[in-house]
Amino acid sequence: MEKPTKQGRYISIKQKLLGSYFIMLIIPILLVGIYLTASIRTNLINNKMAEIENNNERIQMDYVTLLSSVTNVSDWIYQDGDLADLVQTQYANPFDVYEAYQRYQMFEDYLRYYDEIEHIRFYVDNDTLTSTTGIYNANETIKNTDWYQSSVSGNGGIEWLVLEDGITKDQHLNLIRSVYRNYELVGVLTIAVNENMVKSLLADSASTVFITLNNQTPLYSYPEYDNIQDTYNQYRPVLDAVEDTEGNYEALDSQRYDREFTLNIRDVHIPKTLDSQMQVVGVVPTDSILQDVNRNLRLAYMIILAVLSMSILMLAIFIRTFNKRIIKLKNAMTMVAAGQFTIPPSIKGNDELSDVYKHLVMTTRSIEDLMKLNAEHIVNEKDWELQVKDAQFKMLASQINPHFLYNTLEMIRMKALRNQDREVAEIVMILSKLMRKSLERKQKETKLSEELEFTELYLQIQKLRFGEHIDYEIENTTQHDYTIVPLIIQPLVENSFIHGIEPKIDKGNIKIKVVEVDGYLEITVKDNGIGMKLDQLEQIRALLASNGDSSHLGVYNVHQRIRFTYGPSSGLSIDSVEGEGTVAKIRLPIQEHLNRQEE
């Protein structure tokens, strides 16, 4: 009578477990699956659009970088006095012209070191010159062309046009710019962009992309079409339906495609370009995005179905094994009661039943567990020692002896001297000094003289880089060699170069002045660069006055380090006039310096 009663009770427990697990497991999985499916679909669409936007942004940035290199070359040619002398000289015979061409090799150097350039054409009005690689006499046909006249009237401004080269008969995107010297026209410069370089940056595009010039004229595309104009015209009904400013747009061209398109338009801003406008236009059929999304959703459905199937299978296995677990626990308790402590280590499951069995095992095998824990501890300790030794070895292996760097730079300098290349030798020597001082600056403070010497090394490198385009002056009228926070002058000088001197066409000048005024040490960095607009200056001043985090702004970091070290009465101030230059002034309390010097 007892056995059937127990058996009947076990069957009732199975039924309850089956119903409970169905409610607590299957239904939540279905609800979560439905919710996740909708969320995944939305996220996949957003991720796909973000991928397309990032792709077009990458193309935009790479394209701007490419054209900026061409613009920089045009600036160097514009400022090249040797070129102006060459093309404005009246020559007596062809041999003199030949010798002048042999002495001037800059065009060949530009073509050799700048892959972005296809060719350079400089058209001048000098009948005594003969046409050669890069320099050509401007005949009446060339002078009467629209692009030539537009460039002359542009007074040195940069313009981008598609021109057919008179020599190769190929069409290229060209930078066009008139070159003047002392308000006198020297010639008209055209620099053709290397089409292969543009195609290479479009090669990894994730969607159809066009790069356009003024009035939506297509220049390049990916994929590369045989007739880019006809292909681009197919999208014009869609493009004409939206604005031509930057952003994402959705449009439906029912006449031709009867499908929805997503457009991503980005403007291409080339430095120093006034009139020419370029855009990166990405065209993506919306249904192609949904195809990828649906493919991923089908995979998600298969995963959910597999999870459900596995859950049902595991539920059936659990119910079948539940009785076996009860019997196994009962047998183990019987053995312990009889004095037999060798029982199986565990039973399947992770619930109260298994917890009871675990406590039973713990009471019978506590000594064995302690021995095992001790053995594991020893093994883990050995493993840790090996890991520490391995980390120390890797750390030692990754260190580079600074003397190796200094000796290598000295070897390069000596080779340059033996090859009679004193300019390279001087650059290497200055760089070696700069690196040595940078690696040796581990202390929190430094002498004023050492800070000025470090800054002058940086200025010497910039002087060698820009030549006669810049001058600098350092004036120190202080009576003591004060102790100051390191690296507070050089960042201001570097900021003057990047934002003031480099964009400037005329000769740049930087002056560093150190004086003692009313108990303060004043360090002034003044440049004659392009200056800042009033709103930009106010923005920087507001940032210096705030206590926010702006680790990407060098002047802010200098200001914060000074105030942290010397208090709120010290710091950095900036003044600037657009077109005239910028003045950055550091104020440090002299008494604070004298106290540190005496210590």
Task: Please describe what this structure looks like.
By secondary structure, the chain is of the alpha+beta class. The protein is 56% helix and 20% strand. It is built from 19 helices and 17 strands. It has a 5-stranded mixed sheet with strand order 2-1-5-4-3. A 5-stranded antiparallel sheet has the order 7-6-10-9-8, with helices on both faces. Strand 6 (208-213) and strand 7 (217-222) form a beta hairpin. Helix 1 runs antiparallel to helix 7 and helix 1 (2-78) packs antiparallel against helix 10. The longest helix is centred in the first third of the chain and has 77 residues, at 2-78.
Short description:
The protein has helices at 2-78, 81-88, 94-103, 106-113, 140-143, 146-153, 195-202, 228-234, 236-239, 286-337, 352-364, 366-398, 402-418, 422-440, 448-466, 490-501, 534-545, 554-566, 590-598; strands at residues 117-124, 135-137, 159-164, 171-181, 184-193, 208-213, 217-222, 247-252, 260-268, 278-285, 446-447, 470-476, 483-484, 508-517, 520-527, 571-577, 581-589.
